[in-house]
C-alpha cells in the first residue's frame, strides 16, 4: 500500500501554495453570493447585528429648539447691557412646561422659565442659566448679557431630517442604539445571521462531557469555531461528527450544504482526512476545490472550495490552525454575506490593533505568511510584544495570547526591538 | 417661588466636585457587594460569560504521546545513520489506528505507521514524516535521521493535569472555549448576569415607535444604556418610565432596588429631576447619596448612592453624558459584582486602546477630567486622532466616534501633534 506523500519532498518551497490573499481572491472570483436576507429586530436586540439598510433621520432631532440649561428664555437684545451688578430687569412671562409645546411667547422685555430640555418659547432667542438670574416676584433680574443662540440646542442640531445617520452594513454598537432610539425606531432592519454548519471529522474525537478512551481526544475545534462564528455574528450549527470514511464525509457535506451559507469541514489533522475533505468537496458539487493548501503558518493545509454556491472551508485539525484558518477565511466570508462595511477604526488589520516593541526575534520563511501568537505587556517604555511559544496543537498558546502578529511573506524574520502592529483578539 | 440654583455662582471651580476615581472610591468604601451567584451554562453558551471558578486541567492533554505528523514511528537510534540516499531499512510493524490505544509496540529495527494525532506506540520515541520514507512491502526505508522526541507531542504538552488553565473572573473568549472543550467540560461554571434596572424619568420622553407631540423627544438613554449593559455582560431591564414627581421616582426606585444588583436612575436633564433622583435615593434607604456631581465632562451631574446594599447611579439626561457616565461608573460596578479580573491586554485604560497623534488642540480645564470623543484615521504617518465636535446632547458625535481620549484633571489642554492614547469603544 502506498501512503499519500510517501517519498515526496516535504514542504520546502512555499511557492507551491497561494498566499492567503491570493487564495481568498480565487474564491471570490467564483463565490459571489447574495447578501443574506433581512429581518426586523426590536431595538433591544439590535446590538451586534448588521444594518440591512441605510437609516435616515425621519425628522430633525431635536424637533424643536431646546434649552440646554435651566434658566430664563429671553431676547438677547434685552440683556445687552446686563452684568452681575447691573441686571437687566425683565417681566416674568411664565413657565414653559417640559414635554409640551410652549403655551407662552416671549415678547420684548420678557423672560420665561425653561428647564433643560424644554422648548425655547417663540420670541426668545437665547437662555440665561439660572445661576445668573434672580427672581423678584413678577420681575426677573438677568445678570449676564446673552448672545442669540446661547444655551439653545437648535432644531436639527443633532440629526437633520433625511440625513443618513447609519449606513447599511454597519455593526450596531450601543451608541448606534441611542441614535436609532432618538429617531423613534422600535424595529431595526438587520441582516439575518448567516448559518454556518460545522462538521468535524476524525475517529479520535469525543464530545466534551463523555469519557475518553485511550487514544481519543475531545473535540475542541467544533466548539471553538462555533464560538468564533457566534462572536462574528453568524449562527453556528455543530452537526454530528463523521468518521474518516469518504462516504460519511460526502453524505454529511451534502446535507450541510442544503441549509447553510458557509460550511466548515474540520477534518482530522491527518493527510488522509484532509484528502477526504477535498474529495468530498469535489464530489458534492461544482466547481469544487479551488485552493488546496495556503502559504501561511499555521493552517497551511486549509482547503477552500465552493459547492453549488456555498463556500466550504476545509479546516486543519490542529486547534490553533483551526482557529486561525477560521479567522483568516471564515470571518471575511461571514462579512461578505452580511455586507459588513469595513470598520472605520484605524485598527485596520481587520479590527482593533495596537503597536508595540517586539521582545524577542521571530523567525519565519520567505514566501510564507506567519500568524504569530503574541502576549502584550505594558512596560515603562510602552507595550512589549512577547511571542507565545507552542505548536499549532497548543490550545494553551491561544489562551495566553492577546493577539496575532502577522509576518508578511517577504520577511524571513522580525527583529527584537522592532515596532510591530498586533491585531487584537 | 425660588428656582434651584437661582443667584448662585455657576460652576467655575471644579474643586467643588470629587474626581471620578475619588467618587468611585467613596462608593467602594461603602458598597462591598458579594459576587453574584454562579450557574452552569453549556459550552456553546459560555462565550462572553465570566468564569466563577478557576478551571484546572482534570488530566494531561494530550493524554498520551501523539504523533504530530503522518509517518513512521521509530526508535531514533535505529535511524542514526539514515540519509536521503542511504536509508535505514526497518521492518514494518503495522498501522496504529486513530482514536485507539496502539495495539502494537515498536521493537528495535521496527517502524509503525502513524497518522497525525495517532498514539505514538510503545517502544517508539520519534516519528519520521512520510515524505522522508518509502515503503517496500514489509520494509520501510527511512531517509532521515530522527532525534528522540521528533514529531511527537508529549503527554501533557498542552495542559498538565491539575494546572490552572483559566482563572475565575476571566471573560470567556472563543479560544478559551477551545481550552474548556479540550478538557472535556460540557458545562461551564459562570457568574449569573447581574441584573441592572433602568428607570428613565422625564415628562418629555416618549418610547421609540410612538408618535412625538411637540416638545417631546424619544427616550434614547434607556435603550443605549441597556445595550451597554448587555455588552458588558449584565442583564438590563428597562422599567416603566416615571414622571417628574418625587413620589413616582421614589416608588419606582423602591421597586427596582428589590430585584436588581445595580439601578440606573436616568433623570431628565434638568436641575429639578437631578434633585428628584438624589432625593429618592436618600428617601428609599441607607446610606443614600454618597456623591452628588463629579469633576468630569461630560456627565458632571452624576449622582452615586447606595440603597440597602444596591448601587444606584443617577445618570444625567443628556445622551452623551448618560453613555459616558455608564462607561465610567456602571461598567466597573458590573465588573465588581461579576468578579472580572482586569484584562491582561496592554490596552489598560480598561479595555483596548491604541495610540495616535492628536490632529487638533483639545482644551480642558484644570481640575476636571475630560472624556473627549475622537475619531481615528489611518494616515501615512500613523494614526491621526480627530476630536469629534458636538455637545453632550449630540448622539451623532458618539456614533461618529471610535473611542475616548481622556484629558486628566491636571491638564488644561492637549496640544495638536501630541501622542495620545485612545480608549476604543
Write the layout of secondary structure elements.
The structure is a homodimer of 425-residue chains.
Chain A: H1 20-30, E1 38-42, E2 55-56, E3 66-67, E4 71-74, E5 88-95, E6 110-114, E7 126-129, E8 133-136, E9 139-142, E10 152-153, E11 164-166, H2 174-182, E12 187-191, E13 195-200, E14 205-206, E15 217-218, H3 221-231, E16 235-238, H4 246-259, E17 262-266, H5 271-284, E18 287-292, E19 296-297, E20 303-307, E21 310-315, H6 319-338, E22 353-358, E23 362-363, E24 369-379, E25 382-387, H7 395-400, E26 403-407, E27 413-414, E28 419-424
Parallel strand pairs in A: 5-6, 13-16, 13-17, 14-15, 17-21, 19-24, 22-25
Antiparallel strand pairs in A: 1-12, 2-11, 3-10, 4-6, 4-7, 5-9, 8-9, 18-20, 20-21, 22-28, 23-27, 24-25, 24-26, 26-28
Helix pairs in contact in A: 3-6, 4-5
Description:
Chain A is an alpha/beta fold. The first copy, chain A, folds into 4 domains: 14-36 and 193-338, MoaB/Mog-like domain (Molybdenum Cofactor Biosythetic Enzyme, Chain A); 45-61 and 162-191, Molybdopterin biosynthesis moea protein, domain 2, CATH 3.90.105.10; 66-153, Beta Complex (Molybdopterin biosynthesis moeA protein, domain 3); 353-424, Beta-clip, CATH 2.40.340. In chain A, 20% of the residues lie in helices and 29% in strands. Chain A has helices at 20-30, 174-182, 221-231, 246-259, 271-284, 319-338, 395-400, and strands at residues 38-42, 55-56, 66-67, 71-74, 88-95, 110-114, 126-129, 133-136, 139-142, 152-153, 164-166, 187-191, 195-200, 205-206, 217-218, 235-238, 262-266, 287-292, 296-297, 303-307, 310-315, 353-358, 362-363, 369-379, 382-387, 403-407, 413-414, 419-424. A 6-stranded mixed beta sheet of chain A has the order 7-4-6-5-9-8, with no helix packed on it. In chain A, α4 packs across α5 (271-284). The longest helix of chain A has 20 residues, at 319-338. The first copy, chain A, starts with 19 loop residues before the first helix and ends with a strand. The relative contact order of chain A is 0.13. Mean pLDDT of chain A is 90; it is low at 343-350. At the A-B interface, β8, α2, β14, β15 and α3 of A face β8, α2, β14, β15 and α3 of B.
